[in-house]
Write a structure and sequence with these properties.
Layout lengths: L1 H10 L11 E2 L6 E10 L5 H17 L4 E7 L5 E6 L1 H9 L3 E12 L4 H6 L23 E6 L13 E3 L20 H16 L10 E6 L11 E2 H14 L4 E5 L1 E2 L7 H12 L2 E6 L19 E10 L3 E4 L10 E4 L3 E4 L7 E4 L2 H19 L1 H6 L5 H11 L1 E2 L2 E3 L9 E2 L5
Parallel strand pairs: 1-5, 6-8, 6-10, 7-8, 10-12, 12-13, 13-15, 14-19
Antiparallel strand pairs: 2-4, 2-5, 3-4, 5-9, 5-11, 13-14, 16-17, 18-20
Helix pairs in contact: 5-8, 6-7, 8-10
């Protein structure tokens, strides 16, 4: 017995007894071949993260391997994202500080004022009266983070009420490239500007006077030569935590186009929900929302599908977009008029669950301002589940005609009226 234990102890001093951190790959073929998210165990420190990255970088240089660090995570968890070859991937998995490695995936934006007329009333027939919202449409003091492709802040819809969240993550000499790139607005501002104006634009916004924060995390946007990665969005959320203004709503109008379950996304959003961030997310545009990120992975997030409203024959119709039991409710998302980026007065029409989610993000801001004024005054966080429950409790029910099966989705449309 003593000899047996001695042999085990000897083996455990070699690679034969080395513990390897798990590698999480997507269940479908959407993983980026050499791009990974690395999370450290909770017991480790920022200094240990830097030491690990430096050690890995030195090893790659000395042994003709490849690792390219792009971004550090320092708030929701400690870790990094970047490209690496197979040898470096295997090495990183053997480092005792590493909790897990996750293969990165590509994400897409879900997009393409009758919407205000519909959500300030329970009746299906539009009354064409001026928009009347909870709390006189005033969401002053509530922070709304637009984690997207950029917002044209000088557009007349925003009245100068858009702030920019800078990438203040630590830069180290072993890191290559720049984080949070800022491409031209004609490529990158279209989607972010459109959803931001539905949240809190002067004419198109559900909530006025909220503090909009531009978190420019998605670099590719409409540019055909670039790609958005999940790690880019996660880094954007890390930037939000660092910025940290409360009370806060976070709009995520993007997601994977195929089934994906991300450990890193779950860790980040669950941490942020615990800190009081209210997540509003687009359900997506292709099937069952339970099979798509981000809608299937948060504890208290509000997942929004889109409906066509104002139909003279059918009323509120869901004919496209994701449905299923993971959808919290629906909102107008077809032919929504909003701000464009070609000029400071440009207007465009967009369709998709991104626009529906934006309407609900604005509604969440109104609920916070009206029902939790002390938190607004004291700049303290709210309970995300309370906001979700309030929005669901206020919603218009039994109004939606499902062109296809609802697949368990609720017959529920957002209501922002008084």
């Amino acid at each position: 017995m003593v000899l047996h234990l001695a042999v085990i102890a000897l083996l455990c001093q070699t690679a034969l007894c080395q513990v390897t951190a798990p590698l999480h790959r997507p269940s479908t073929d959407i993983g980026i071949e050499d791009r990974y998210i690395v999370k450290l165990k909770q017991s480790h420190t920022y200094t240990e993260l830097i030491n690990l990255c430096t050690k890995a970088s030195n090893y790659a240089t000395q042994n003709n391997h490849y690792i390219d660090f792009e971004k550090l995570f320092t708030n929701a968890f400690l870790g990094f994202t970047g490209h690496m070859d197979a040898a470096m991937l295997s090495l990183i998995q053997t480092y005792p500080e590493v909790d897990y490695v996750e293969q990165d995936v590509e994400i897409s934006e879900f997009a393409t004022p009758g919407h205000l007329d519909r959500i300030d009333q329970h009746e299906e027939d539009l009354d064409n009266n001026p928009y009347t919202a909870l709390g006189d449409r005033n969401a002053a003091g509530v922070n709304i983070y637009i984690v997207d492709s950029g917002v044209r802040a000088d557009h007349e819809q925003f009245d100068g009420n858009v702030g920019f969240v800078p990438d203040e993550s630590e830069k180290c000499d072993f890191m290559q490239g720049e984080s949070a790139p800022t491409p031209l607005l004609n490529y990158c501002g279209h989607h972010g500007t459109g959803v931001a104006a539905v949240v809190s634009g002067k004419d198109y916004g559900v909530a006025n006077h909220a503090s909009l924060w531009d978190v420019r995390a998605l670099a590719a946007c409409n540019h055909p030569e670039n790609v958005n990665y999940l790690s880019d969005a996660l880094h954007g959320l890390d930037m939000v935590i660092h910025h940290g203004k409360q009370p806060a709503v976070v709009l995520l109008a993007f997601g994977t186009t195929l089934h994906h379950d991300s450990f890193a996304f779950r860790d980040v959003t669950n941490y942020m929900e615990g800190q009081g961030y209210v997540f509003v997310m687009a359900a997506g545009n292709g099937g069952d929302a339970c099979n798509y990120l981000p809608g299937s992975l948060t504890a208290s997030g509000i997942v929004v599908g889109y409906a066509m409203t104002g139909s003279p024959d059918l009323g509120d119709v869901v004919f496209g977009g994701n449905t299923g039991p993971c959808v919290s409710l629906f909102a107008p998302g077809v032919d929504v008029e909003t701000a464009g980026v070609e000029s400071t007065t440009d207007t465009v029409t967009m369709t998709g669950s991104s626009l529906a989610a934006a309407a609900v993000a604005g509604t969440a801001a109104l609920v916070i301002a009206a029902e939790y004024p002390d938190d607004v005054t004291n700049q303290t966080p709210v309970n995300p589940q309370d906001i979700k429950d309030s929005i669901i409790g206020r919603a218009t029910e039994n109004t939606i005609y499902f062109y296809k099966s609802a697949d368990g989705a609720p017959d529920r449309l957002v209501y922002a009226g008084p």
